[in-house]
Amino acid sequence: MDKNGYDLVIIGAGPAGLTAAIYAARAKLNILVLEKSAPGGQILVADWIENYPGFTEGLSGADLIMNMTEQVKRFGVTIETNEVLSIDIAHSVKQLQLNDRQVATKSVIIASGASPKKLGIPGEEKYYGKGVSACATCDAPFFKNSVVAAAGGGNTAVQESLFLTRFVDKVYLIHRRDQLRADKLLQERAFENNKIEIVWDSVLKSINGSEAGVSGVTVENVKTGETYDLDVEGCFVWVGTTPNTGFLKDTDIKLNEWGFVEANSRMETSVPGIFAAGDVRDTPLRQVSTAVGDGAIAASEASEYIENLDR
């Protein structure tokens, strides 16, 4: 166990966690940032970001995270690669169980983000990494001059489908409704792209293939019940996110029915000294700009909490 403990531990190094680290460092708090993989979270796979203020031409998710990470390090903050397995919140000083040790902290900001949701259909797990993917930026080059299927209708699904068209011959974008949920600008780009064919009112029923990988998908029209097969060489799934909150399961931190952390406008959770920020939070919008705002508020509130605790 770390003997001296910390003022604040930030779980996650995406936009919310990194912003919280900047604000906490400027408040002269003794902090630790934990990230189980690489800093950035889902934003790392964003090909191009056009709606984050200050970058007139846009920039890649990787570049934005690199800039944020360097800014955090400039304040002397270390980002440690480690995973939080559980949290003991029984006392005012919280105990976090990591892979290799325990750490004590007066406050915590949960900024652990969310992961791509899966469909749970036959073939999805079997062919994951063998033709099934949730990251066009990562895997599009493997499908050059191919025909692929994609499931979803939100910003990520449309944006990633547009990116796919740089490599593939055709994208069947399969959406269960009769209109997309993506921003109007993205919709317009999809409608104007002759490599994208939107399959309305439909869902994927199975992903088919052989030892060599994906060879097709079975689609069902939700209005008529008709099923049919499409010959494709890959399938991308963008149907929402699942919060990374497994380590909170044995705590009194309140989660909503989908597992996202409930927090008020001050980012306070149901447990004093525990704050939440970014995609892991129950929030109507999950974007870089909202995550940054959450992180700033969470760090400011954590600083005030610690100050009152020490009085």
Structural key phrases:
five-stranded parallel β-sheet; alpha/beta; 27% strand; 311 residues
User: How many individual helices?
Assistant: 6
Low-confidence stretches are none
Strands, count: 17
Indicate the radius of gyration in whole angstroms: 21 Å
Overall geometry comes to: elongated
- Overall mean confidence score, pLDDT: 94
Order of helices and strands: EHEHEEEEEEHEHEHEEEEEEEH
Rounded to the nearest angstrom, the distance between the terminal CA atoms is 26 Å
The percent range for helix content is 10-25%
Structural class: alpha/beta
Structure in words:
- The structure is a single chain.
- The chain is α/β, with parallel strands linked by helices.
- Helix content is 23%, strand content 27%.
- The chain contains 6 helices and 17 strands.
- The strands form 4 sheets. Strands 1, 2, 3, 4, 5, 6 and 17 form a 7-stranded mixed sheet that branches. A 5-stranded parallel sheet has the order 8-15-9-10-11.
- α5 links the parallel β10 and β11.
- It is elongated.
- It starts with 5 loop residues before the first strand and ends with a helix.
